[in-house]
Amino acid sequence: MIRTKVSEVLKSYETVNRTKLAKLIGISRWLLTKLADLHEVERLELETIERLCRGLNIMPNDLFLITNSDGTPWKPDPKFKLPKEVFTNTARGKTKFDIEAEEFKFNKIIEAEAIKQGLPVKKVNKKEPLRPSE
C-alpha cells in the first residue's frame, strides 16, 4: 500500500493554515486534508503531485511511503533481477493479437520470477489474450 507523508511534511512548518496552503498550491482543501489525515487516496494525478512538491518545496519521494500489509515500511529486494526475456523488442512487426499474447506471456514470466525469488505476488484477474477468429 502506498501511504502519503503529507502530515509529516506539514509538521515541519510551525503553523499552517490548510485552506490558504491548498489555495496557494492549487488543490482543494478537502484533498489536502484527506492526504494529511487519512494518509491514503485511491488515485492521485501527476499534476497534483507536482503541485504538492513545488508548493511544499519537496521531492515526490518525500511525499510517499510504501508499506507492507502489516504496516511496516516496504524495502526493495536487492537480489531481484528482471528476467532476460524482458529486454527483447517484441512489438516490431507484430499484430495487435501477437502483442497481446506477448504481454500476457511477459506478465507470467515476471510473476514466475518473483515467485522463484520468494517475493509476494499480487494476483490480477486478467483474461487470456485475444485471438483472431479463424
Question: How would you summarize this macromolecular structure in one to three sentences?
Answer:
By secondary structure, the chain is mainly α.
Task: Note the main attributes of this structure.
single chain; 434 Repressor (Amino-terminal Domain); 2 domains; disordered C terminus; two-stranded antiparallel ribbon; 4% strand; mainly alpha; 134 residues
Spans of 5+ residues with little confidence (pLDDT < 50)? 130-134
Please give the number of β-strands.
Answer: 2
Q: Kindly provide the radius of gyration, computed on alpha-carbon positions and rounded to a whole number of angstroms.
A: 21 Å
Q: What is the count of DSSP helices, taking H or I runs of 4+ residues?
A: 5
CATH class of the largest domain: Mainly Alpha
**Major sheet description:** 2 strands, antiparallel
Molecular shape: elongated
**Helix-strand category:** mainly alpha
Strand neighbour order, sheet with most strands: 1-2
Q: What's the CATH superfamily of the largest domain, by name? A: lambda repressor-like DNA-binding domains
Description:
The chain is mainly alpha-helical. It has 2 domains: 2-66, lambda repressor-like DNA-binding domains (434 Repressor (Amino-terminal Domain), Orthogonal Bundle), CATH 1.10.260; 76-134. The chain is 42% helix and 4% strand. The chain has helices spanning 6-11, 18-25, 29-38, 46-56, 96-116, and strands at 2-4, 64-66. The protein has a two-stranded antiparallel sheet. Helix 2 crosses helix 3. The radius of gyration is 21 Å and the shape is elongated.
